[in-house]
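Lecture 7 notes: from sequence to structure.
We start with the chain below.
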Amino acid sequence: MEPGPRGFPYYPAMPGDWVSQAALPAGLMFIMFTLGIGLALADFRRVFAHPRAFLVGTVCHFVLLPLVGFAVVKAFGVTGALAVGFLIVAACPTGTTSNLLTYFARGDVALALSFTAFAGLVSIVTVPLIVSFAISYFMGGEQGVAFPAGATMGQIFVVMGVPVIAGMAVRAKWPAFAQRWQARLGVVSAVVFVAIVLAGIARNFALFQQHTATFAPMVFAINLTMLAAGYGLSRLAKVPRDQAITVAIESSVQNAALAIVIGATLLKNEEMMLPGAIYGVLMYVTGVAFVFVGRRIATAAR
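Predicted structure tokens for the same chain:
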């Protein structure tokens, strides 16, 4: 495997590499813009309105999830670029589709929206730090890789932060337009998300077939652990049931599109991208199952 930019292991460019270099980042930027157009500054004030739920969610998402991801990778003996790929997934913010799952599970949708926005902004800082650690731990000793945290932080801000801010600016400037188009853009955003995941799988279908059987138990282990931890810790902290359901979902549904873009585009390593593609498919198995659990919890609480 030949060295690539900044010393990262690099897979030679393929015909149609514009997919990873242009189409995937553009798709992710559109998803983040759609998230931004649905947000107002009032959404961030809910951090202070629901401090316990946000505190538990922050601990679960930014502390416990990377630790669980690391523990699962070690337990299954995964190493190298694939191990880094799993830590990339664990480092990513919650996915926008978590809001839809929260709605169906009868959780607190307003809390989900505000936490998704909060996690997206905080992840601009936390993702490069966690990915830097993962590369140093799993690959640094072998290849002397020096992860460019500052440069990657800037790239992540461009593909995540700028579109969210632009979307919020559009909503503030033209609120009627934003409200009229928000639902339609949300549908297109969901389609774009599916397209990014499918593109990631299609580009490496042989690797996907080879590793899915191994990775599926890892994905389910992470998902189920975080669903249980999010809900259980929330209830221990006396967070209301609907908000506990929200924290559980927000702690387990990741922005797989971002994980794919980081692996395929920023780090130029298709193996690092693969866990994100598999996670992006399988996380909905446990997610949808938890929707039914959440609905039963919400019904019993009435």
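Points to note: Residues 1-16 have pLDDT under 50 and may be disordered. Residues 17-294 form a domain with the Na+/H+ antiporter like fold fold (CATH 1.20.1530.20).
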